[in-house]
Amino acid sequence: MPEEKHIFSMLVDNQPGVLSRVSGLFSGRNFNIESLVVAETIDPLVSRITIVTKANKPVVEQIEKQLNKLINVIKIRDLTGPESVKREMALICVRAKAEHRAEILRIVDIFRCKVVDVGRRHYIIEVTGDEGKISALLNLLKPMGIKKLARTGPLALLREPD
Question: Which pLDDT value is given to residue 36?
Answer without folding.
Answer: 93
